[in-house]
């Protein structure tokens, strides 16, 4: 009981605004940039803080979907971390710039905990420095756009040609790469990927005809599990999009999404 009370007090102390901690105690110019641009994910990777992979949306009990989530989410994070830490590793600012700490819950039965994994570094593409990736200068953005798209495609798959991806409208790039990733890893059926892309297009370009949507009389559980799984992976690719500095005016941190689960549920 005494230990429980102490744990409770410790948790309350986290909300004490008088216990302010300096987020950039060493006056690191990179940290200063990340803080000014509200790049929380990049800040955590750069400083070695744990990255949360636990999603309340994904049912990890499901063999077909849920048990694949941690592996797929971890892969996106490891590849994205490699871009963030690429120059830090080269400059050897700390002894080991290859590790990423994850907060995980592998299954319904397992306790939540921490897992250390290695960042995956690009070999055929040299990432620009973080100030270059995050630069708001139009000339810099134009010069680096091809490199950024190559890096973004590399995170998802070495088989994805960035030239094909380049023609995708900005509003749909995170959607398209998420669906490609899930199809390549055999998570989605082609029909499901097509429908999710159609919904994203309709929401992004406001082509929905809400009055004439026909809803099914019978619901399919898989439709809901797929929709939530897609959304959870989308968020990781959304963070990667911000890391690479592609998040312009049309960027959405969450998927262009509406009534997809019921639309995917089956025939009327």
Describe this structure as you would to a colleague.
The chain has 268 residues and is mainly α. The protein has one domain (29-263). The protein has 11 helices and 3 strands; from the N terminus they run H-H-H-E-H-E-E-H-H-H-H-H-H-H. The protein has helices spanning 2-13, 29-36, 40-47, 69-91, 130-133, 138-156, 162-166, 173-184, 190-204, 221-243, 260-263, and strands at 51-52, 99-104, 113-118. It has a 3-stranded mixed beta sheet with strand order 1-2-3. Helix 4 (69-91) packs across helix 6, helix 4 (69-91) runs parallel beside helix 10 and helix 8 (173-184) runs antiparallel to helix 9 (190-204). The longest helix has 23 residues, at 69-91. The radius of gyration is 20 Å and the shape is globular. 31% of the residues are buried.
Using brief descriptors, characterize the structure shown:
3-stranded mixed beta sheet; mainly alpha; globular; 268 residues
Q: pLDDT below 50 for ≥5 consecutive residues: which ranges?
A: 259-263
Q: Major beta sheet, specifics? A: 3 strands, mixed
Strand order of the largest sheet: 1-2-3
Cα-based radius of gyration, to the nearest Å: 20 Å
**Which band does the percent of strand residues land in?**
5-15%
User: Which structural category do the helix and sheet elements fall into?
Assistant: mainly alpha
Helicity level: 40-55%
Number of domains: 1
Count the beta strands. 3
Oligomer: single chain
Put simply, the count of helices is 11
Distance between the termini: 56 Å
Q: Could you tell me the mean pLDDT?
A: 85
**H/E element string?**
HHHEHEEHHHHHHH
> So what's the overall shape?
globular
